[in-house]
Amino acid sequence: MKLSVLYYSKSGNTKRMARAIGAGAQSVEGVEVGVFPLERVDQEFVKESACVLLGTPAYLASMAGTVKNWLEIQARSCSLAGKLGGAFATADYVHGGGDMAVQGILTHFMVLGMVVYSGGGSWGKPYIHLGPVAISEELERYRPIFTAYGERMAKKSKELFG
Ligand SMILES: Cc1cc2nc3c(=O)[nH]c(=O)nc-3n(C[C@H](O)[C@H](O)[C@H](O)COP(=O)(O)O)c2cc1C
Predict the structure, then answer these.
(1) Nearest protein Cα to ligand 1, atom 16
(2) Which of 2, 23, 35, 138 has a CA that sits 20 to 30 A from residue 154's CA?
(3) How remote is the CA of residue 29 from the centroid of ligand 1, in Å?
(4) CA–CA distance, 55 with 134 (Å, rounded to integer)
């Protein structure tokens, strides 16, 4: 079963967290993970994926314009409908809108017909509400949350589609 982690990253923070998610997902048996920047998405791999996760830096308390543009235009070529979807973000400030960036992506995923999931709730600690958000100044402190998120999304994908 394939799982794709897509991200946009200008200065590397979101890329690092995307890789942490990928490592967590890869730890689940039978899951093949692809981690792609939005500039170089392997559309065939994404099409074959049961789960697609999308990450963004918070820009003006929302997703980056590049991410919205990808959702509006290129996402159509990836046959996202029916797949499990989740979102993650990095931001400079806890009050900087990382959650709103995540929520924006999840809303787009719903419109595209995906099965949206937070990776939180009944799993307990580490708690994840809408999707993981890391603060740039202490990125590494958040790594375990992103790794756990990848593992949970992979396990849920297997449960639903495996
Ligand atoms: C144009 C621009 C707008 C930003 N707006 C916000 C913001 O509204 N809130 C915030 O917390 N951080 C904001 N940031 C900081 C980034 O979200 C943060 O540094 C992020 O980790 C960068 O991710 P990257 O290294 O993957 O590019 C902004 C950065 C840029 C370049």
Answers:
(1) 91
(2) 138
(3) 34
(4) 11
CB of 60 within 6 A of ligand 1: the answer is yes
Is the previous residue joined to 126 through a cis bond, with omega within 30 degrees of 0? yes
CA of 138 to the centre of ligand 1 (A): 14
- Does residue 91 line the site of ligand 1, with CB under 6 A? yes
Using a 6 Å cutoff on CB, does residue 94 contact ligand 1? no
Q: Which residues of the chain are modeled with pLDDT < 50? A: none
The count of C-alpha atoms lying within 13 angstroms of the C-alpha of 24, restricted to the half-sphere facing its C-beta, is: 23
Fold classified for 2-161: Rossmann fold (3.40.50)
Q: pLDDT for 81-109, tens place per residue?
A: 999 999 999 999 999 999 999 999 999 99
Please tell me the predicted confidence (pLDDT) of residue 128: 97
Specify the residue for token string 């923070």. Answer: 13
Q: Is the CB–ligand 1 distance for residue 55 below 6 Å?
A: no
Instruction: Give alpha helix (H) positions in the chain.
Output: 13-26, 43-47, 65-72, 98-111, 139-161
Are the C-beta atoms of residues 55 and 8 closer than 8 Å to each other? yes
